[in-house]
């Protein structure tokens, strides 16, 4: 039956399935997967118990897996709750379709539901069938690593983030355990092992090939886990995460979530989770901005690398840089006090109303003067409450229409478009704005073209644009999308008209509670275009449809409306694409209050880097700590050798100063050891370690006298070291064979003399290696790893196997 191997194969599959955790919210899929793995293991054991041919194992296991899925997800349509019927198969197919639709609609992690759990359980069960067949029935444990690897390839293909090293280490440990048990089971095929009678026999080493395999496997896992952690630049927060709190000198980098990917997650999650609340003296508050995306590279909008200097740090009472271009229109001060929910993760950009003039917040926060984005290299906004004093510009249509031409630097930076932009986009832009007498009129016509009539459908299930062709398809073909497509398209078309433009991202103003607070939820995440007009600076436009048929809380700025037009935009008539209201979302099975926020811990990383040239004090504490840790690791063999020497002598040395001198192997006689025989053995083991450290061969089959004679050939004839070697050999011989051991009062001094002689007899490289990286210590580590691997191989769930045998015999 191979019960042990069956159990370990199931455990290896279970540990590898942990790597799927980033794909799902909740843990229901995991518990369902545990049941599938157990079912497949039991089916395989039953097939082997009945001595069915190997070709029958997969059908039997798949039938049991189908019965398990039926019992769990379609018991009402099955015979006796578990036997599949056409009705139950139809129900499973329906749930699988729902799960597939959910997987394609939501960004990972997807919300829980029976459909998505069914897909996850089926996949885990299929892998369990393959592992059981390969590892247990066909005895190809190494080949079973391929289906186990498939469990890691799915999240690796979907997410840009790497998996947790803990999940990887668990799966690797399960696979290594499977290899060890398979090797032991194959060894047992030669017959029943003879139990050893003595303790020495029990310490017989395993086969050298097995020991080498154990060491190679453990070393490979350790390297795979450790190298990405310690190599600078691989880990997003530096070695061991220490870069996140690095000091202020030198260059620092921080990786932030891709804003547009995070926005897609927010809008498809259908969550009413509160992201922040705020109070303001503004009667109709404006949007809260996080990012200003100023670059369009032909694939998507991003922001330029942020350059930070000490003067960009925000301090209490210190005003921020003046808003670019805001000089000729009326603006009024607005005070907003914002509280960010504590569950928000990775929000290292502050949501603030534009344009912030002063921010009161604790921690290390900085401002990017050209965009007025507020960010931190080390802190997060979660759980913080801060006050923002901002200037809200109130331009009139007349002022925007008569705005002068922007400066050359603004035109150069904010008018770039891809060189391969299809000409039909330019023609469409010119057609929409034909007859406009100013750039302001052109911008307003673009906004109205997006939001009026039945041209566009607001649909959060649309694929996010990742190339110029995607935006062209949105403008000219399907015309279905959400705020990202609307904002990106209008900004691109504005640049074609010579209007500096960028894409802003953050949250709408939210909804006002009865107590006067404004509440912003994850569904209020939004993107909008900002266009630049000299004298007014960056001005918000709103091309995204609002209301039930669009972004529910979007509003049209007053300076872009016709007289008498409501601030809510005309809505696109598409009830089938309407985003669910809060009450509807609560009633939807897939809607769950998960970790929905714009800066989410599971958002794929865009790799946007902010370089900080900060020489305003402090030191690179993270790198210093990493250097100290590296030095500690490198000095570990030397420290271990010194500790082993002291412990070896301390076990036989008497108390007092003489004992301490003996333990240190230093000069001086003094009180003799209480056990001369044990002291002789300790000295002989120390001599062996010194010989190995200095590259001298040590042959365990030689007698002490023969060993001393061979080692003395490397020393000067007649030197004190030769005499010391002879005394050490004589003491070891008498401790082994004589009734009365030799006196041991000079053993420490003899070892010191031999150590110095060995050092003088070898080259400089070998001498320094003996001091800094003693090979005897490394040999001890290798032996310890081999013993650990052997102990792991002997742990084969024997008791559980006995219980299972009894169950199957019944």
From TrEMBL:
The keyword Transmembrane applies. Residues 307-329, 543-613, 651-677 are annotated as: Disordered. Residues 662-671 have a biased composition (Gly residues). Keywords: Membrane, Transmembrane, Transmembrane helix. The chain crosses the membrane at residues 29-47, 54-71, 115-134, 141-158, 164-181, 212-231. Residues 475-545 form the Transglutaminase-like domain. Pfam families: DUF4129 (PF13559), TgpA_N (PF11992), Transglut_core (PF01841). Residues 569-587 have a biased composition (Low complexity). This is Transglutaminase domain protein. It comes from Thermomonospora curvata (strain ATCC 19995 / DSM 43183 / JCM 3096 / KCTC 9072 / NBRC 15933 / NCIMB 10081 / Henssen B9). The lineage of its organism: Bacteria, Bacillati, Actinomycetota, Actinomycetes, Streptosporangiales.
């Amino acid at each position: 039956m191979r019960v042990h191997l069956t159990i370990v194969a199931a455990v290896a599959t279970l540990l590898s399935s942990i790597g799927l955790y980033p794909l799902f919210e909740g843990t229901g899929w995991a518990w369902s997967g545990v049941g599938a793995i157990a079912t497949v293991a039991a089916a395989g054991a039953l097939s082997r118990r009945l001595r069915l041919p190997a070709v029958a194992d997969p059908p039997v296991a798949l039938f049991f897996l189908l019965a398990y899925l039926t019992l769990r997800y379609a018991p009402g349509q099955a015979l006796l709750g578990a036997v599949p019927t056409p009705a139950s198969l139809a129900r499973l197919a329906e749930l699988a379709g729902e799960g597939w639709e959910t997987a394609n609609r939501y960004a990972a992690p997807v919300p829980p539901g029976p459909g998505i759990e069914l897909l996850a359980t089926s996949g885990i069960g299929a892998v369990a069938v393959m592992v059981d067949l390969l590892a247990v029935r066909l005895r190809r444990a190494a080949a079973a690593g391929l289906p186990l690897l498939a469990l890691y390839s799915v999240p690796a293909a979907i997410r840009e983030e790497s998996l947790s090293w803990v999940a990887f280490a668990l799966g690797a440990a399960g696979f290594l355990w499977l290899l060890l048990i398979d090797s032991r089971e194959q060894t047992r095929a030669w017959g029943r092992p003879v139990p050893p009678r003595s303790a020495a026999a029990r310490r017989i080493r395993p086969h050298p090939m097995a020991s080498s395999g154990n060491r190679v496997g453990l070393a490979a896992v350790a390297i795979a886990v450790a190298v990405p952690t310690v190599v600078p630049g691989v880990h997003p927060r530096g070695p061991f995460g220490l870069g996140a709190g690095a000091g202020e000198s030198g260059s620092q980098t921080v990786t932030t979530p891709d804003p547009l990917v995070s926005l897609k997650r927010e809008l498809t999650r259908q969550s009413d989770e509160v992201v922040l609340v705020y109070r303001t003296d503004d009667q109709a508050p404006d949007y809260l901005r996080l990012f200003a995306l100023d670059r369009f590279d032909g694939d998507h909008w991003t922001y330029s690398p942020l350059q930070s200097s000490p003067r960009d740090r925000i301090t209490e009472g210190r005003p921020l840089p003046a808003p670019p271009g805001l000089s000729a229109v009326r603006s009024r001060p607005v005070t907003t006090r914002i509280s960010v929910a504590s569950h928000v993760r990775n929000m290292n950009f502050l949501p603030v109303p534009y344009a912030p003039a002063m921010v009161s917040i604790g921690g290390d926060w900085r401002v990017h003067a050209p965009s007025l984005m507020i960010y931190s290299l080390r802190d997060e906004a979660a759980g913080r409450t801060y006050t923002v004093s901002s200037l809200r510009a109130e331009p009139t249509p007349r002022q925007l229409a008569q705005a002068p031409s922007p400066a050359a630097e603004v035109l150069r930076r904010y008018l770039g478009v891809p060189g391969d932009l299809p000409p039909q986009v330019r023609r469409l832009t010119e057609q929409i704005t034909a007859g406009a007498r100013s750039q302001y009129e052109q911008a307003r016509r673009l906004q109205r073209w997006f939001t009026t009539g039945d041209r566009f459908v607001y649909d959060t299930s649309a694929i996010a644009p990742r190339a110029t062709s995607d935006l062209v398809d949105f403008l000219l073909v399907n015309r279905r999308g959400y705020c990202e497509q609307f904002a990106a398209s209008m900004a691109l078309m504005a640049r074609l008209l010579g209007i500096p433009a960028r894409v802003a991202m953050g949250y709408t103003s939210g909804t006002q509670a009865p107590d006067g607070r404004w509440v912003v939820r994850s569904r209020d995440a939004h993107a909008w275009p900002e266009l630049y007009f000299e004298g007014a600076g960056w001005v918000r436009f709103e091309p995204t449809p609002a209301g039930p048929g669009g972004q529910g809380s979007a509003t049209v700025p007053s300076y872009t409306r016709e007289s008498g037009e409501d601030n809510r935009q005309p809505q696109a008539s598409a009830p089938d694409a309407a985003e669910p209201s809060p009450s509807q979302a609560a009633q939807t099975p897939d809607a769950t209050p998960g970790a929905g926020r714009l800066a989410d811990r599971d958002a794929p990383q865009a790799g946007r880097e902010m370089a900080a040239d900060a020489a305003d004090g402090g030191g690179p504490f993270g790198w210093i700590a990493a250097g100290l840790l590296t030095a500690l690791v490198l000095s570990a063999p030397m420290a271990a050798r010194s500790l082993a020497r002291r412990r070896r002598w301390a076990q036989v040395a008497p108390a007092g100063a003489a004992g301490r001198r003996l333990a240190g192997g230093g000069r001086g006689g003094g009180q003799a050891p209480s056990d001369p025989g044990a002291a002789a053995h300790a000295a002989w083991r120390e001599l062996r370690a010194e010989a190995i450290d200095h590259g001298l061969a040590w042959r365990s089959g030689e007698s002490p006298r023969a060993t001393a004679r061979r080692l003395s050939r490397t020393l000067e004839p007649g030197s004190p070291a030769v005499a010391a070697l002879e005394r050490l050999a004589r003491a070891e011989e008498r401790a082994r064979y004589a009734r009365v051991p030799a006196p041991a009062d000079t053993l420490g001094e003899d070892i010191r003399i031999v150590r110095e002689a060995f050092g003088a007899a070898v080259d400089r490289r070998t001498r320094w290696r003996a001091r800094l990286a003693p090979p005897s210590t490394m040999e001890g580590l290798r032996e310890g790893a081999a013993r650990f691997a052997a102990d792991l191989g002997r742990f084969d769930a024997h008791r559980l196997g006995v219980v299972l045998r009894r169950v199957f015999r019944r």
